[in-house]
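re: that complex we talked abt at group meeting.

here r the seqs, copy pasted straight from the sheet so there may be weird spacing, ignore it
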Amino acid sequence: MNASIQVPWQAEVVSRVQETPSVFTLGLRLDDPAAPAPYRFAPGQFNMLYLYGVGEVPISVVSDPEHDDEIQHTVRAVGRVTHGLAALHPGDQLGLRGPFGRGWPLEAAVGRDLLLVTGGLGCAPVVSVINYAMQRRERFGRLGIVQGVKHMDDLIWRERYEAWAGQPDTQVQLAADVAGSGWNWHVGLVTDLFDRLGMPLDQALVMLCGPEPMMIAAIRRLLELGVEAESVWLSMERNMQCAVGLCGHCQYGKDFLCRQGPVFNYPDIRDRLGVKGF
Amino acid sequence: MATGGASPGWRGFLPREAFDTLLRALEAAGYECIGPRVEDGAILYRGLSAGSDLPQGVEEAQAPGHYRLQHTDTPRCFAWAVGPQAIKPHLFTPREALWETERDADGRLTFRPVEPGPRPLAIIGVRACDLAALALQDQHFLRAGNADPYYAHRREGLFLVAVNCTHPAATCFCVSTGDGPQAGDDCDLALDELDEGYAVRAASSKGETIVQQLPLQALTEAQQAQIGREREAARSAQQRTMPAGNLRDHLFNAWEHPRWAQVAERCLSCGNCTSVCPTCFCHQQVDVPTLDGGNATHYREWDSCFTQNHSYIHGITLRPDTRSRYRQWLTHKLGSWHDQYGRSGCVGCGRCITWCPVGIDITEEVSALLAEAGK
Amino acid sequence: MHETTAKPKVAVHKFSSCDGCQLAFLDMGEDLLTLSAMVDIVHFAEAGMLDADATVDVAFVEGSLNTRHDLKRIQAIRRNSRFLVTIGACATAGGLQALRNFTDADAWHSAVYATPEYLDSLATASPIKSAVHVDLELWGCPVNTRQVTGAVRALLSGVTPAVEQDKVCMECKRQQAVCVMVAKGTPCMGPVTRTGCGALCPRFERGCYACYGPAENPNTDSLSHWFEGLGLLPEQLREQYHGITSQTEPFTAAGNRYRK
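got the structure back, here u go
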């Protein structure tokens, strides 16, 4: 019986970084002889991480797809499994299945300007693309990076954003709804930031990730600014348990997020996006 | 789903008293035989060792939220429509171990898949609606390149003996969905029951092998005519209907229809409909560790879009109320199913009507939603 | 995940109850030996360990609150415990003794006792959470070993125990039991009751009597309406809800609709 895709491989924690009080990044190394070597994935895809005796949780991969010595996952501790994962340290073992789903359209993005928009804490899938593009800067045109958070303290990787802002042909804009001293970025909404980028957007390919209301508001503004609907891609979230299109939890209308998603082209889900109950 | 017209292809007549030869032939071919038996006031698939185990003389009365057996003096053993469960539990089992994890003293993990045991199974007395549902479950669990190994293993070893339905229940509507009452070729043997025995047809090469071992007699013209009349009667006896065609656009256009809130006043959100539905496939995964922390077993078990967990993501329940859960079920079953599997997910077996504890009738809800949605 | 190196201290406390839930520990079989190797049970009167005032990592509490002394004790237990788990219907939902909450208990005192002035009971029997914060509730009359070992295992692993809140029907169907309400017309509380028992009663052709309390999203109005159709009289209907888990909001309200 070939049950491989439904049974995890052994993986070991090789690094752990506490990003904020509730967000951490685990670097993993597959050490299961049955696991593929090298392990290959596309930015935007996710793995199922298994915490012994508790269960599995879908987490997107943030590390570079060509550096398979350490597969990195940035996790927010919110539920039973993720709180348990937060307690893992280098040397601890866990299970890993993956990668699953459709990632970002990086082939289609070659030669184009990229606008990467993230909101709240759900930024990991898009950050994987930023890292990817920074490593292969020559393949892409201008790079716009836009990130919005509720509170300035929610922003993770601020120093990375500020470092990216210093790169050639790269524009970075950050916003916080609530900010105090020490915040020299915009106070307000993500949608305010597109005009401040100082780059034309009508030819850009846009990738978004974050809370649905934020993505809807951002898309509305981007379409007004001349972005083509077909050039907008977003990463969605639903309950995922099997990750192979069987268990039914991630259904989003006619699509199974774990198979047809989590990254969708905006026109394909326009009718469902933001409708309560889907 | 052939529902008539084609050549019947009968191979002969198996007298009732020779029914056990079918069981013996199947056993000799390595199958464990299960078939309908009366247990706990219902007709359930249970181990079958002789024709005398069958529910001879038993008929049933089904209505919304109501199921009762009645004992009559008919010599027939299949004078009923559908029991509480179709083939589903035998392939997509209610609870199944997928893998085991061993954790040693240093916290190192070893994963082992749980192999489903070899258990070729022959199911006797399946209905056309159940075969249609099986074809849909096959589409889901045996997707090309990504077949579920646990399901596939059991499916591989399955032998299906269909018995054409002559006694549709008041809750049945398979004629309107095009799935019955007569079985097509998606089985191994197909029988038509008469008072004195069974007309037998082989629908597969596996079935052909078994047929050759049966003491068949010639099927008389009178018997053939009788079967034809009963098949037609089974079609015309059905009282309920599901509107034909792809209802997807109509149902999604009715997303804010007041009927959803009305049905939610009655719906218990208990998951009985999805559990008896022969096509519903949702399941959840649970991990059960031993107390000493040395082993854990990872199970999958039936879940339902009517549970809170089904639409839960990190602190948010996307479908918190019954209205949105019922709507998810119906718009998936009769709507997005067309996009996913090329047809409706409803085969007209009527189980969700009978086994709803408060008798909600899917055909009634659909006609209310469509009538006012302007179809 | 790192197991705590020191053996966690555990106490099992009892308030007004029949002691049946404590049997979920004593009936563990081999797991009881495992448990005693993994934790230090410092107080468990029914098993002979007595140290009611010990500071513990986990306190399991059985029974409901009925006296002023109970209130003092539960406050002390809360102060002495890092994680407090209520076990069973009495501790989580008042239990059978809370049926007095719907009656004139003072009048009963006078009728039953020669010198009722010696009694010092509170006006009502109440679940533990009415007095102190509860970290985890294990429902049922009684709770079973699977629930208790599951909770202990999770706590030892440093994770929150899973909360079971689906309807009994889900498990009843997984167990492939025939629905007693549909096939026999037996009133069954399964469609509004929390899972965890393994659908024990329906598997023995008996209706569920809601000893695990309300499930999430219970539609008691619709179920009551169906019960009326099955021929239940108002008093019988009230008793369906005002039984073992009456001190829960959905069941108190559903039963009150049928009070005279």
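couple things i noticed - The interface with chain B takes residues 1, 3, 31, 34-35, 38, 149-150, 152-153, 156-157, 162, 165-167, 169-170, 173-179, 181-184, 188, 190-192, 205, 216-219, 221-223, 225-226 of chain C (CB under 8 Å). The first strand of chain C starts at residue 9 and ends at 14.
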